[in-house]
Amino acid sequence: xxxxxxxxxxxxxxxxxxxxxxxxxxxxxxxxxxxxxxxxxxxxxxxxxxxxxxxxxxxxxxxxxxxxxxxxxxxxxxxxxxxxxxxxxxxxxxxxxxxxxxxxxxxxxxxxxxxxxxxxxxxxxxxxxxxxxxxxxxxxxxxxxxxxxxxxxxxxxxxxxxxxxxxxxxxxxxxxxxxxxxxxxxxxxxxxxxxxxxxxxxxxxxxxxxxxxxxxxxx
Length: 219
Description:
Layout: E1 2-6, H1 10-22, E2 26-30, H2 33-42, E3 47-51, H3 59-68, E4 75-79, H4 84-92, E5 97-100, H5 105-119, E6 127-129, E7 132-135, E8 140-143, E9 146-148, H6 152-162, E10 169-170, H7 171-178, H8 189-201, E11 207-209, E12 213-215
Parallel strand pairs: 1-2, 1-3, 3-4, 4-5
Antiparallel strand pairs: 6-7, 7-8, 8-9, 10-12, 11-12
Helix pairs in contact: 2-3, 6-8
């Protein structure tokens, strides 16, 4: 899943970006509020991690602009300001969760996963579909009682399809979920990854929707 990280501190940003990638997320990193606005105007994200103390445009302005535009993407606010007033202001402006600096990276990732579950209408981490058991936190997939090894790209496509059951995902939408700003999109990559998933998880799991893309039917 693709996440927008908005943080102007290089040390903190590098740590968060590395941790998120290790946890299986695709990450775009904007270092000021203006670039964050541009990113949000052009890309659909599963989650936004937003520092409030940003140059050019403040994090609070980014958040309010996002909500005024009707964008309901989950937002986790980060800030060095830790007073109750600051937390309340952020939440009332449209933030979904709040984490003060300094913070533990494992807690940040856990909060991100909790926000994504809530947005997807899930109360537990495991995703069960037919004979599949998928654990997003551990990045594991089992067919029956057999563990199946997936590449990071295959994993990302499977998760995108399973968390959008019944909603066809276009090739461009799948590419958006897989590739960040600095990553080159390989020719026919989506088709190859879907073919591999069908071989590993069963030919009937992922359906082709003609002239649209792919879908996992609602379970």
